[in-house]
Amino acid sequence: MATLPSELTLHVLMRTSLEQARGWVLPGVGVLSEVEGGVTLTGFVQHMDWMARCLAGLHWPIGIVEPPELKTAIKRHAAALVAAAEAHGL
């Protein structure tokens, strides 16, 4: 029997307005809620690398509350971007 990747709880704080977040965050990724200091994105995530790439494209600061695996995926994605830029003399 095949197994599916386990879903982990997603909780991200975005330092932006709800209006801006709605314009950038794909529907179905999670629930956006206005809170003091920004907007939270909550839901579930299976593919950390995919979510890391989505979050890296946002135009405002973010804070990963959970899962810790997403923090690792974002660091990995950032390192890959730096390596690619350096390989091309940027």
Please, could you describe this protein's structure?
The protein has helices at 18-24, 48-56, 68-87; strands spanning 8-14, 31-35, 38-45, 62-66. The chain is α+β, with helices and mostly antiparallel strands. It has a 4-stranded antiparallel beta sheet with strand order 2-3-1-4, covered by helices on one side. A hairpin with a 2-residue loop joins β2 and β3. The protein starts with 7 loop residues before the first strand and ends with a helix. The model has no long low-confidence stretch (mean pLDDT 92).
Q: How are the strands ordered across the major sheet? A: 2-3-1-4
E-strand count: 4
What distance separates the N and C termini?
47 Å
Form type:
globular
Please work out how many helical segments DSSP would assign.
3
β-strand amount: 25-35%
Low-confidence parts lasting 5 or more residues at pLDDT below 50? none
- Supply the helix-strand structural class: alpha+beta
User: What's the helical proportion of residues?
Assistant: 40-55%
